[in-house]
Design goal:
This protein is 78% helix and 0% strand. It is mainly α. Helix 3 crosses helix 11 and helix 4 runs antiparallel to helix 5. The chain is globular.
Length: 284
């Protein structure tokens, strides 16, 4: 009876719309941020804080508009800084994934190799990637190679460790069952290894991208020659341009938030769906 009634209801056409729960979640998320901005603005406007040290949010927005230069977007200095920083962070992240994911599967499947390299990984994993910046500066000098190399290390170890743990968490019985059905290495990887390791792998990708983005700021402050958000913040210090510093900080925070919620979260949801579907017997 329920099925027939449901079948008779016409489906709505058009793109997906936000549900009331999503709107409530968004408002709940933005409410503390809005309250902080209002409090910050009031503190500066009433003279309780020095605007030359802590500019009001409205002052930061005005300065950001000046740097953005929307009338002549091709000459926008802020967009150039953002684009260069994104390119460096994404290049380092992609390179880290290309190396860390295959290596993680190898170490996760080989118990002997993992035991041999585990002390080395335990030693290097807690080490901040920024600590390598002086070494890279001595070896390669200032420039993109040093920045991307440091960001690569920031993303590499979280992705590697998560991939290893995801592969090692797969039950051996699932591997035996698929092998007993005649699956080769490719079938074993597609049906068992990848779906089983995917949740941990996605978490590692999120951590790796976050580490790469955070490491980028310090690396650009020390090694950038001309462009990048970290370079912009550090260069503004020389002129006591605090508003420009805060513009860079806001851009870093907003871009990091967009990466987390607009890119990583949908990928995580899709990965969980694929992993569940692949483990469903009906799907095979």
């Amino acid at each position: 009876m329920t099925a027939s009634r449901t079948a008779g209801i016409p489906r709505q056409k058009g793109g997906p719309s936000a549900s009331p729960s999503q709107i409530v979640a968004f408002v709940t998320f933005m409410l503390p941020i809005g309250a902080l901005l209002l409090f910050w603005e009031g503190v500066v406007r009433f003279g309780l804080a020095d605007a030359t040290i802590l500019p009001a949010p409205s002052m930061i927005v005005v300065r950001e508009w000046e740097l953005l230069n929307p009338v002549k977007a091709e000459r926008s200095l802020l967009l150039v800084h953002i684009g260069v920083s994104l390119w460096r962070a994404l290049a380092a992240f992609v390179l880290a994934c290309l190396v860390a994911i295959p290596l993680g599967f190898v170490l996760g499947l080989s118990a002997g190799t993992y035991r041999a390299l585990s002390p080395l990984l335990s030693l290097l994993l807690p080490l901040p990637a920024v600590a390598w910046t002086p070494i890279f500066l001595v070896a390669f000098g200032q420039g993109d190679l040093t920045i991307i190399g440091v960001c690569f290390l920031g993303a590499f170890f979280p992705v590697l460790y998560s991939t290893i743990q995801g592969v090692r968490g797969i039950g051996v019985h699932a591997i035996w069952v698929v092998q007993s059905m005649g699956a080769g290495p490719l079938g074993l990887f597609r049906r068992v290894l990848l779906p089983g390791a995917l949740p941990a792998l996605i978490s590692g990708l999120k951590l790796g991208m976050a580490h790469s983005w955070r490491t980028l700021v310090a690396a650009e402050m020390l090694a950038a020659l001309s462009y990048g958000l970290g370079f912009m913040i550090f260069a503004a210090r020389s002129y006591m341009d605090v508003s420009t510093m805060f513009v860079g900080i806001v851009c870093l925070a907003v871009i990091g938030l967009l990466i987390e919620h607009a890119i990583c979260w949908p990928v995580s949801a899709r990965a969980r769906f694929c992993a569940t579907s692949s483990r469903d017997p009906a799907s095979s």
